[in-house]
Amino acid sequence: MTRVGHQTGFSLLEMLITIIVLASGLLAIGSMYGAILNANTLSKQRSEAVVLAEKKLEELRGQSYATLVSATDTVTAASSSGSSANYQRSWSVATASGGLAYKDVGVTVTWTDNKNQSQNIVLSTRISNVSATPVTIP
């Protein structure tokens, strides 16, 4: 008499399917890792560019109204990770039309990212020709 028993354990086919599913999942995670690193690097570079533009705007706000002129400079900023990028920083100063006492100031920071594509950040503000006078409280 032949007795059919209940088998326990995994078959070879089940193991192969499991290995294929796990391998494809690991490959997907591995391919996303590179994209995440590139996005992280670009984010750091954008943050550095914004800081450089804000610093220049603050420098221009500190100058006297009459000395505000357009110009360009090159800045190398080291990031916290140790990598650095060369940033081209330019600013334009335009006197407002209609006799208004302010100037439109724009700062553009341009750099080349890891994929060799040009990136830029633009910040703008208005600087008035009003001199601050100290207020005394009696």
UniProtKB/TrEMBL annotation:
PROSITE patterns: PROKAR_NTER_METHYL
Protein name: Prepilin-type N-terminal cleavage/methylation domain-containing protein
Keywords: Membrane, Transmembrane, Transmembrane helix
Tagged with keyword Transmembrane: yes
Classification of source organism: Bacteria, Pseudomonadati, Pseudomonadota, Betaproteobacteria, Neisseriales
Pfam family, one: N_methyl
Transmembrane segments: 12-36
